[in-house]
Structures are given as structure tokens and as C-alpha cells.
Design brief:
globular, alpha/beta
Length: 212
């Protein structure tokens, strides 16, 4: 049994902007990944709407700082074979950080946290895959993406994350290659888009973890 932690925000949780709810279970990308990989894999979904990489959200009634909860998750779900991190869009909110560079700094910190966590076993450090989320888009009425985030900055995430992946020798996937944001709010995904991410990640995971 191989275990994967899917660590993300509302795109991982499965927010459905069209229905103002949550996508059906079978369409959320971690569950698609689980189905495609089969019964010898366990994919744990840890998605929270509004979650950032390492930044506090001053307007939130709950802790959305990913760095604050990641060590707890690494401990509670230990041992892990792979940690998939898809975060960064909430970092782009002007009141939080506002730039792709800030998100990249946060992603590096999360990678370091996974690598240097005090695991009970010396050989228990999991592999890491960072995922650049689909680009933001204007809403159907022409307004900017929900949260007044920059489309330009969202497009820069893939370039910066790819550079980080090369530097730290972790896996990388660009979700914009298979999915795009729903114009309903310019941020979240349609059911088919999140499903497509799960299918694509399954192919990459099978290739890479098959070598373990």
C-alpha cells in the first residue's frame, strides 16, 4: 500500500462555483487519482478553501496558513510515500501576499518542511510533487477573478514552480495544461476540469512512484 497526501486549497477540496457547493465525490481530483491508481494506493485529501502556502489571512476566522498545519498532517498520516502540494492562488490575494514570487517562497518553505520533518523512521521522507494550479481568468461578466487576484501573476506560478522543482529535485505538474478556471468566478474549476487533473496526475504518479 502506497500513501499519498493531497495538500491544497479549495481546488483540492472540490469547490463548485456553479452550484455554490462541492463537486460530486467522483469528480474531485484526489478521488479520481485514487480510483485510477487502484486499491493498492491510499490518497488522503487535505483541502481547505482559502489555504495559503505560509501566509496568514487576516480576515479569516480560522487558520488558513498551510505551514501551520502541514507538520501536524505529516505526523498524523505518517508514513507517506508522496506529498502533492497544489497551493499558491490564495497567496495572490492583495491583502495576503499579492505576487507569484511570494507564493514561490512559500512553496520552497513547504518543501523544506516535508523534507526535514522529524519522522520516526530515518528512511521515511516522502517524495514531493508540486502542482501549479490552473490560471485564473476573468469572470463571465468581465470582472477580475474572485478576490481581485492577478491573472498575470497566476500564469507566472508555473514558471516559478518548475524552477523550484528543478532546483530541489522534486516532481512538478502544470495543471494549466489540462484544466482552466471556470468563468463563473474566475478561480474554481468545473467538474470536468478537476477530473482531468486527477487523470493526468495518476499517469505521472504511476510513472514516478513505480520506480520506488
Amino acid at each position: 500500500m502506497k500513501t499519498i497526501l493531497a495538500f491544497g486549497d479549495s481546488l483540492t477540496w472540490g469547490t463548485d462555483a456553479q452550484a455554490d457547493g462541492r463537486h460530486a465525490f467522483d469528480y474531485r481530483w484526489p478521488n479520481v487519482l485514487q480510483k485510477e491508481l487502484g486499491p493498492n494506493w491510499d490518497v488522503i485529501t487535505e483541502g481547505l478553501g482559502g489555504r495559503t502556502t505560509i501566509y496568514d489571512d487576516p480576515g479569516s476566522p480560522i487558520d488558513r496558513n498551510g505551514a501551520n498545519v502541514l507538520p501536524i498532517l505529516l505526523g498524523s498520516h505518517f508514513p507517506l510515500d508522496l506529498v502533492i502540494i497544489m497551493l499558491g492562488l490564495n497567496d495572490l490575494k492583495r491583502e495576503i501576499a499579492g505576487s507569484a514570487e511570494a507564493a514561490a517562497i512559500g512553496m520552497v518553505r513547504l518543501i523544506e518542511m516535508v523534507r526535514h520533518h522529524p519522522y520516526r523512521w530515518a528512511n521515511a521522507v516522502p517524495r514531493i510533487m508540486i502542482v501549479a494550479p490552473p490560471h485564473l481568468c476573468n469572470q463571465a461578466d468581465g470582472k477580475p477573478p474572485m478576490g481581485d487576484r492577478s491573472i498575470k501573476e497566476s500564469k507566472r506560478l508555473s514558471l516559478l514552480y518548475r524552477e523550484i522543482a528543478n532546483q530541489y529535485e522534486v516532481s512538478f505538474f502544470d495543471a494549466a495544461t489540462v484544466a482552466k478556471a471556470d468563468p463563473v468566478d474566475g478561480v474554481h474549476l468545473t467538474a470536468n476540469a478537476t477530473y482531468a487533473i486527477g487523470l493526468a496526475l495518476a499517469q505521472q504518479v504511476e510513472r514516478e512512484l513505480g520506480k520506488v
